[in-house]
Amino acid sequence: MMKIKDILMNIKDILKGKFLVQKQSYHNWNFIIFITFLSLMSITSSHIMDQEIRKITKINEEIKELKSEYASIQSRYLRIKLVSVLKQSTKFKHVETAPYEVIIEK
């Protein structure tokens, strides 16, 4: 029965913070400051990593947009390059002769 009271007293002493005001509390303070420093470093590192992940996500979205824009421009270019499209476009511009192909042999 006495041991339970001692355990409860020790827990109460810890919760009240008596271990911080005792004569030998210098080591306790050093440990607490060290743990605080490590936790602040961990939090800072986490925030920096979150920022980097946001940057990477933004850049990946830009890459997807640019790839789709490139594909649409390329398909438009290939469509314009077709001879049939060139013939139709010259009809509207009142050109009498149709465009002709130049074939170069090696």
Can you offer a commentary on this structure?
The chain has 106 residues and is mainly alpha-helical. It has 3 helices and no strands. It has helices at 2-16, 26-81, 83-92. The mean pLDDT is 83.
Write a short abstract of this structure.
Helix content is 76%, strand content 0%. It is mainly alpha-helical and 106 residues long.
Summary keywords:
106 residues, mainly alpha, 0% strand
Give the SSE map.
Layout: H1 2-16, H2 26-81, H3 83-92
| Oligomerization category of the chains in this entry | single chain
Q: Write down the Rg.
A: 38 Å
Strand content: under 5%
Q: How many β-strand runs?
A: 0
What helical percentage do the residues reach? over 70%
Largest sheet: none
The gross shape turns out to be: rod-shaped
Let me know the average pLDDT. 83
Terminal-residue CA separation: 105 Å
State the secondary-structure class.
mainly alpha
Low-confidence stretches: none
